[in-house]
Each structure stands twice: as structure tokens, then as C-alpha cells.
Input
Amino acid sequence: MPGIVPTVQPVGRPPAERRAAPARAAQPQPVHDSLVCVALPALAVSPASGQLTGHGLDGFYRDGRRVLSHCELRAAGGEPLVVQGRLTGADRARFVGTVRRTGERGPDPEISLERLRCADGTERITFHSSAARPVRLPVEIRLGTDLAELGAVAVGLPGPELRAVVHGSGLRWSGPGVHATVAASPAPEDALASAGLLRWELDLPPGGRRTIELHAGLEHTPGGPAGCPSGGHHHSGGTHIPGQRGGVFAPRARADRPPRPWTSARLECDDHRADALMAGSLDDLYGLVLRDPAAPADAYVAGGFPWRCGPAPAEALWTARMLLPLGTRLAAGTLRALARSQCAAPGVDFGRIPGALRDAGPHAPPSCTGVEATLLFPAVLAEARRWGLPEQETERLMPAAERCLRWLRTAADASGGGRGGYVPDPAPDGPYRCETQAHAHRAALLGADLLDTYGLSDGAELREWAAELRSRFRSDFWAEDRAGGRPAALLTADGRPVPHLGSTAAHLLDTGLLGGGALGPGLLDAAQTDQLARLLGGPAMDSGWGLRGLGARETGYNPFGHRSGAVRVHETAVAAAGLAAAGHERAAGALTRGVLDAAESFGYRLPEMYAGAQRTADGAPVPHPAACRPAAVAAAGAVHLLVALAGVRPDVPAGTVSVRPLGTAPLGAIQLTGLSVAEQPFAVRVSRLGLGMVEAAAEGLQLGS
Output
């Protein structure tokens, strides 16, 4: 047929003349359509069929190693027909299928199967017979592994498959410093180590069932390399540049799962999709919780799978900050862990928190997550105190916050290129990013309050510096045009503004408590704030599914660009909260509804980003092939979007809490229970008219409007 067979055949070459295929370059492996079970430091990645074939990221992982790359089931001589594969929780997946046997009559299968797979390395395979007669069912499972590091597998560089040996009731594989084992129950009737096969003959009575259980484990031999949750490789399309280490904590986490470091919050909304998003996001976040090996009682949240399964300081702080309405335990643990990593040696880096570089898109050099984390630290501490972090805990963390603030002033005073007073990122000579100045401004004002509270010096100097920053920023960073102007994304080292409009500008609206409270004057004046709100709410920035990383009309826009057009849930959440605080509730509501609509398409498990293509009436958000999913800042951003609808603004040291919900009630009536203010339960209800009412609060808190 025309179009099927080429009309001109290629000229053949003798075998000696044929060139060897070039080695395939490392490239990110997609996970957007995989079922990912997470309970760090354990993971299980499966296709919808449930058959682990060793392709891509398929497998069981622990401590950053692939324990199993193959787990292929055959029954009655063939592969089961899988009719459903889905997650039943952040750490669990369920696959349902049928088995056809030779000689069966009619269209109805008589044998069904269920595979329940958990992140911890366990799998239960249950066969159920609906046949009228007893059935003998031959079953075999092919197992294999390469014991490769997660970071290598994630960029398409798996290792060679290892040879197994029979071990107990299963198989064992050995690599440098580690052993992987699989134990089966009941014990197989036959084991062929050379092929990695375990075999059973199962007798199924009419209406009966039989179950095979597998447990995959990893053993580190004495003197072997310690496991690394992140694998040491990081994807530049997410947060880190390949080859950069993403952590400042020790890489190994204890295997036992910590308790949830937040309250059992619950949302009931007229739009029931919001309830599912809240529950799913908290479930995802718990799968990413790790213990700090230096102090196992301190928990923090890893960045996301697969690129940041280890610690990511800025993302850990953003997550803790966005979850403050659910208690201060996560914030306290994260701050304590980061304080232990802080640079204490004299010099220009004194007080700085280490962090990796991350790609910043086509118009800017890479930025430094350590700069962002250093500026976030005092802000998160101050806001946690307002939500109810105990005074003794705040005092304990104050020395680290002081060091962060000292680094801020040193970096601003020493910035080169004639731009003294701005905070550079990542090098001392710039560039000077708009979001970095927003983080620095917030840190200075909140940090000054902390210093004054505890009778420490420099509070007045920080406020004076912040006032000078506002004055310079409103002229240096504002690019006038006929449409009303826009903020520059950054200033170059020589002071030239780069006027591209992107989602990082949303941080200019975030000047206070993420709950919606106003800290004071922002970096922009009132007219500039209103203009920015119009730009963020316009079609060039709002894709209909959330805020684009770069405006659709900007040079270099790419709907799949991780910093040049894709929708990032975290920055959309920051924008929605900032717009609401600035009085632009309709724009805030539109962003909130867009993210909720997108969440429905993703099964209420939001990736860190998705394509920024314009929404159409019959369309759906397009997954980004290299996005983390689950991702901490996306899940925390979703929780924040929903909780922020109530506008809870606490000041526990002053003994007050107010509720200022969005008057537009974009999702209808909502009820939030299980929040925490002053370490006591807090509940609030918002009517369809946007009227808020506190239903539970700590005794002694004065309620305001």
C-alpha cells in the first residue's frame, strides 16, 4: 500500500562498513504516566500493567538503589490481561486482571487476579477462581535487578542485569557493597536462578483463592557505600543542574516511617473535587517525609520523585511554610535540620545555607537554591511563631536566623557592579532577580520583628535597609510602557533591566503571612501592584490551568519550558494568595479554579509542573514529561490554595486570629477542620456569600474580622 513501504530502498553496506550506532546520551526518563508509590526512602514505580520489565524507571527502590527492575508475572502460560491499574494511596497501587486458560469456552474469564504493590517492597498476588471445577494454575514470576542508583536510572543509564542465586525461599543478587533479596511465601516449588524464575502450581477450588507474597529487601554490607535517596543526579528541568548535589542533610534516612508532622486537616467544600485534592496532596506529602539522620525526631520533606528524592532546602522550607495552618511541627523540624547545615565559618558565606544551582530558563543564568533558603529561613521562623511555634523553640532557632540576616546584609552591601543594596544570586556580581529581592525584603521585615522581640540589635537597621530597597526597586525594576509597565525579571550585573514577564513576579505580591496577612508595604507601590495583578490575570500569563512560567507573548516562550512557559503549581499558589491579599479576588479565584480543574485530570496528584498551552473548551492539561510527581511544593501549594480561601491570619504572640475569606467564594461554601493555631484545634466555615465564621479555636484567642 502507498505510504507503508518506501518506494526507494536504502543502499546496503557490507557489514564491515556499517557504523556502530552512537551511544545514547543520558536523558530524563518520563514518569508522567507511571504509577509511583512513595514512602521514602522506599519507592515503587510501575506501568499501568503492573509488569516490571526494567524499562525506564520501573522497579522497587530503597535508599536510592533499584532493588528490583523486573517482576513479570505469567499464569497458565501467558501474561494476565490487566484491566485496571491505579494508586490507592501515595504508597500503594492495585492492579486487577484476568487469566485465560487453554480450553476455556465462552467469553467470560474464570480466573481473576489482584496485585497489591507497596512502596516498602511488598507485593501480594491473589488469584480467584470462579470455575465450577478445581483448577490447577501454573504460575511463574521472573525477577531481576541491576542494583543501579536511582539517579542513573532516572537519566536512562541503568546498569547491566545481575545474575541471581537461590536464597532461602527466593533469590538474591549481589553488587558492590549491597545485596538485594526477594523472599516468597509460600515457597516456590521450583527456582531457576540463571533465569531469575520462581514457579508454583496453585490448586484453586471452586470459588477459592490463593495468594503469593513477595518481599524485596536491600542489605548494605559492612564498609559498603551508604544509600543516597537522590542518587546524586538531578534534572536541570526541575530544580537542579545535572551533577549538582541537591542536599545539605546527610543522605541516608532511617527506614521506619516518621509520624505525620501535621494535623489531620479536612476540607468539605461545595466542589467536592477540592476535598479530594486536599486529601491526595497531604497523602503525597507524607510519602515524601524523611527523618534527619543527625536527629531522627526532626522531619522534613524531600523535593519530589524522581529528581529530588533527597533533601532540597528551599523546597523543604516552602513546604513547611505552606503547611503552617496545619501546625508548626514540620516547620520546626525543617528549620532545626537546616540550622545544622548552616555555614558557621568566618567569611562572606557566614550564615548561608548550602544549596544546589538550578536552571532558570533562557533569559537568566542558573539561580542558587541556597540563597533562596537562607532568605526563607528567618521568614518561616517568624511566621511559624505567629501560628503558634512555642517561644522556647523560637529562641532555640534565633541564632541561626540571626546568621541568615547577617548574611543578607553582607551580601547586599558587597554586591558588585555598582548595584549595592540588592541581593545577588548566585554570584556576588549578580544578577539581581526580582524574586530574590522579594525574599530579602520579607526576611528583613520579619527578621527585624524577631530581633526586636528578643532584645537583639540590628532590627532598626534592617527596616531602614528594607525601606531603601523599596525606594530603589520601584524605579530600577519597573519598565514603563504604553500598557502600564511591568516589573523586570532581573537586573544584570551592570544594572540593565531584563523585562521578560514570568511567574516569578508573583513573589512581589507575597509580602506577609501566606495565610493572607499583610506584613506592611510591599516592594511595589499601589499602582504597580494593580498593574501586576492585571498582567498576571491576563491571557498571556493565565493559561486557564494556572500561571505560566513565562508569558505567552515573550521571546523564548515554550509551553514545555520548565522555566519558560510551563505552569508551576507552587508559583500559581503564591500568585493566588498575593492577588487575594492585594484585593484582586476574581483573578485569585480564576487561578484557584484553574489548578483545581487541572488536578482533576491528574487524579488529584498534581505534578510540579505541566505544559502552559492555552486551555480550550474540550481540552485537558498536558503533562510535562520530566516533571516530579509527587512533588512537595506542588502538593503543599495545592493545600495552601485551598486553605487560603478562608484567609486565616493568626498572631499568636499578640493573642489574636482573624478570618478574612475571599468574598467571591470561588469554590462555594467551605468548611476546614483540623487546622492548628496556638497548637490547638482550629476550625472555620465560609458561606457561599464569602462570610467566615470560626467554629473552634484555642481558649484565650481574640477573634477579629
The first helix runs from residue 150 to 154. The first strand starts at residue 35 and ends at 39. The two ends are 74 Å apart (CA to CA).
